[in-house]
User: What shape does this take?
Amino acid sequence: MDTFLSVTSEKILKGEFEQKKSRFLSFAKYVSSSEDAEEFLRGIKKEHQAAKHVVFAYRLLNTSRCSDDGEPSGTAGKPVLSLLEKLGLFNVCVVVVRYFGGIKLGAGPLLRAYVEAANMVLVTPFCVYEKCFKSHIKIDFKDFEKLLPLSMKRKIITENITFSNKVELDLTYPKTFKHNFDETFKQEIFYSFGVKDV
Assistant: This one.
């Protein structure tokens, strides 16, 4: 897969609502691995230790996982994961914290409450991530002068620029961009250059 949709990688998305005295707090975050997702989940659990249930679902490019965390089977984690699949989202983890208010909701309303909580943080526009390369390069000043206008017109990100007898910088660029710069390293990553309304 060369492109996919996900949430922004720049912030944690948050939502909250109440149903029959139960509080539902929802969180969504861009994650690039199972380890990222598990770390995010641990942080939410630590912050909300008094909560009755901490339900989660995450979907990566190569795997997915979910948990009802004590809610009736199939009423919490699986519906949230199904929502991620329906929206076509990858590399995202959704956590829904429930503070039980003393009134049982029943299976149908409970399922809808978890889906509503997840929906609150899975808002469009989504980011389009595409397979790219990230490199550290050393170039002459004349090449740097050519690169700058290109980076403004095309999907090329220049960062961490330093000047000495050559210009050194980090370059993130789509696989379609061909160049002959000296690269100290070259790493394949997914990067978002923009958003898409769905």
In short: The mean pLDDT is 89. The first helix runs from residue 34 to 47. Residues 3-123 form a domain with the Ribosomal Protein S5; domain 2 fold (CATH 3.30.230.30). The CA atoms of residues 79 and 115 lie 6 Å apart.
